[in-house]
Amino acid sequence: MNPIIHFRDRLPVLAERANRIFLEKFGVQPTSVGLAPGRVNLIGEHTDYNDGFAMPMAIDRYTTVVGAVSADGVSRVYSEQFGDGPLNAELPLTPALSPAQSCGGEGEYGLSIDAVCSGGEGENEYWQRYIGGVIQEFRAMGHEIPPLNLVVCSNVPVGGGVSSSAALEIATAYLIQRVLGSHLDGMEFARLCQQAEHNHAGVPCGVMDQISSVFGRAGNLMLLDCRSLEIEYIPVPVDEVSILVVNSNVRHNLVDGEYRTRREQCEVAAKALGVSALRDANLIHLENNRAAMPELVFRRARHVISENARTVEAASRIRQRDWETVGQLMYASHDSLRVDYGVTCPETDTLVEIARSRRLEQGVYGSRMTGGGFGGCTVSLVRSEQASNIGQVLAERYFGQTGILADWFVSAPADGALLVNRLQF
Fold first, then answer.
1. Active site residue 209
2. Catalytic residue among 48, 114, 209, 407
3. pLDDT tens digit string along 124-169?
4. CB contact at 8 A, 79 and 172
5. From its phi and psi, is residue 229 left (phi > 0), alpha (psi between -120 and 50) or beta?
6. How far apart are CA 110 and CA 307, in angstroms?
7. pLDDT reported for residue 203
8. Long-range contacts: 140-145, Cβ < 8 Å, 24+?
9. Which of 228, 198, 76, 65 is nearest to 137 (CA)?
10. What is the predicted pLDDT for the residue at 107?
11. Cα–Cα distance between 362 and 384 in angstroms, integer?
């Protein structure tokens, strides 16, 4: 069984490990730390950049960045790929970052931040751009960033649709604020990191991932209005239902053009409908204007418009604890992402169908892909007392059908960076 280990048990170990690596690399203790979680989205996918609604939550998988001003005037960052260790109880640890250049140890990666910020090494490895991009956005605000040495440790799955990039950005931003002694509010953090992803990683993302990482609240889902950025917290009775996250271990890369293409198609549809964003359209309006747009654009818009409606209804049903209807809305969301939006893949489709075959009497209410798509994770709403057994069964059947080992974990909604950065370790 995979026990549920809450973040207050995990974070001190993660921070201690980062501190130890920093001391080994640089011979001094770090002076600043930033922490931020990944996130999953229960429902409301590809709605954020259409000014719609989403329902994310922070997960209890975190990235920590520790650092100090560099004594020799050169900025460096290291990340370690973990092997077996105390954090492996639920999910094998993955490197927070992809390898750039070897710096002496197996599974250990390092680079010059100065090269990243000048566009050197960062052209080859996308993770570099997240750190360098955050630094550049602080500089654009007029801050002078001293040379920094950094160490990154993370147990957020990479490339799985759980926002490992946003966790890295937000954790880096919190550390830099502590170095500078500046005082951004939570929404300013989210906006700064969104701009880092736009301007330096080449991903025209909405702000949902960053907001989720900053504003998560333990025991609550967030109904996020992506136009007003208002958040309504919706309590989840964790004794009744749990969130099971299964990583297909098929990687995606949103800068391959597909994400940007979907966004452009939505803009074409909105223009044809005469609205500023698809948030303002309904299915009748869309159907009446079907001839005004290509069929593929029509289907993209149909997903977004119907997904907004599903998300709002899901929030209402969660408040009523109508888990069966919530589950059906999740399945409908996945089907729409597969048929109309074209962002699922055979592996995530397989995971959802395995979950669907377990049915209610076996503890599964609903399942869907989460994140940008083209691989990554699925998220399932399950009965809490059956969560571990369901995770094992899904992984075993997935391996049987695909030959791929799936990692999985159960997460209650966790606290975001705004709260965890107030903790002392």
1. yes
2. 209
3. 355 677 888 999 999 999 999 999 999 999 888 776 778 888 999 9
4. no
5. left
6. 41
7. 76
8. 141/192, 143/176, 143/180, 143/182, 145/176, 145/179, 145/180
9. 198
10. 36
11. 12
Answer for the pair 164, 96: CB distance below 8 angstroms, yes or no: yes
State how far the Cα of 384 lies from the Cα of 390, in Å rounded to an integer. 10
Instruction: For residue 279, give the amino acid letter.
Output: R
Q: Are 222 and 216 in contact, with CB atoms under 8 Å apart?
A: yes
**Residue 151 and residue 261: Cα distance in Å, rounded?**
35
pTM for this entry = 0.85
Are residues 155 and 64 in contact, defined by beta-carbon separation less than 8 angstroms? no
The DSSP symbol for 422 reads T
Three-class SS state of 222: strand
**HSE toward the beta carbon, residue 172, CA cutoff 13 A:** 34
DSSP 8-class letter at 320: T
C-beta separation of 66 from 35 below 8 A = no
7-237 is a CATH 3.30.420.40 domain: no
48: left (phi over 0), alpha (psi -120 to 50) or beta: alpha
